[in-house]
Structures are given as C-alpha cells and as structure tokens.
Amino acid sequence: MRSANLNRTTLETEISLTLAIDGSGRVNVDTGIGFFDHMLDAFCRFAHFDLEIKAGGDLKVDQHHLVEDCGIVLGQALKEALGDKSGIERVGDCLFPMDEALVQVAADISNRGFLVWKVDCPEGMVGDFPVEMAEEFFRALATNAGITLHICMLDGKNRHHILEALFKATGRAFGLAVRKNSHVDGVPSTKGSL
Question: What pLDDT shows up at residue 192?
C-alpha cells in the first residue's frame, strides 16, 4: 500500500499525519478548526485517501499557520506515498457542481509544484475558517507534493458551497491522478522521469 507517516513540529504548530492513497476515504482529523476538518474529510472521501491528522497550533493568533502547515505536511506525505510515481495516471481533472457553485480543477503530478488560483469567493468566514486560507492550503499542498494544480471557480455565491466544491473537486482530481494504470509502463513522462 502506498502510504506515508509524517510529523512536523515548529514553534507555531505540531502535526502528526498518516496518509494511505490506496484507501477508501476513511478519515480521522482533528485540527481544532471544525470547518477545515470537514473540508479535509470531503477532500479524502472524493480522492479515496485514508487520512489521519492530529494537529495543534497557535489558533489564539489565527488559523493561518495551522492550515498552511497542514498543507505542507499533506503535500510531503503525498509525495512520499507516490514513491517513484511509476504506473500512475499522473493527471486528473474534475468539473464539480454544488448547488449554485461550479468549480473546475486540474492536477498534474509533474514534480513541478505550482498553483493557479482563479477563485472569486466572497470574503469572510465559513464557521471558524477564513475563506482566504483555502488558497494558502492548496498552495502549500501543491508546492510540497510537486503537483501543478489549477483551481477555477466558474460560478457560485455561497462561501460554504464554493469551498466544499473546491475541496471535493481537488480530491477527485488527485484520486484520478494517483490511480495506477496497468497500461502505463514506468513513469508517464516523455523525459523518462518526474
């Protein structure tokens, strides 16, 4: 099973994470940020990843350090779990509706971490989660996993619907990209490596 177990401790956060990318979407997360836990659950259910996270940090300051560091550790774990990336699909995409919201996500496990963020979500909070932290999370995730990630909002008004669609669509795109393909021999790259 392709998996990783990582810990990260800084002066701002402490995170313990276990990831299995050949899972069934079993999730046990506790970051202290309720809506973020809900989004990580949605992401993993649509990716079919098993994820355990126990995270704590300086939430008395704000949510930034903890959310970003969770993205860093999850990205590092995903990169480790993928190993040499032999036999994977490499790319995945998803067009995802959620009520009035519609988002599109495309991911390429290229070993070139990059985020394109075209999301015009109304500013504010969803529960205990500041909307702008979604971009920080996905940037940290993409950069540390070595994934080129395009996230675009096509329509939407409700912050909850928009963010939930983004996390679910990204999970779906990642799940497709990491999937093994019996027709792929070695690493799917014209260079011969990623």
Answer: 67
SS3 145: helix
- Residue 187 DSSP symbol: -
State mean pLDDT over 112-137.
97
Domain boundaries, the chain: 3-178
Look at the block and give the residue holding tokens 């940037």: 139
Q: Which two tokens stand for residue 141?
A: 């995730």
pTM above 0.85, yes or no: yes
7/29 Cα distance (integer angstroms): 14
Residue 182 vs residue 71, higher pLDDT:
71
Tell me which CATH homologous superfamily contains domain 3-178: Imidazole glycerol phosphate dehydratase; domain 1 (3.30.230.40)
84 exposure class (CB count in 10 Å sphere: 0-12, 13-18, 19+): exposed
Closest CA to 120 of 171, 164, 67, 157: 157
On whether the CB atoms of residues 3 and 18 are closer than 8 A, the answer is yes
Contact 25, 41 (CB under 8 A): no
Q: Of 116, 192, 102, 108, give the one whose Cα is nearest residue 153.
A: 102
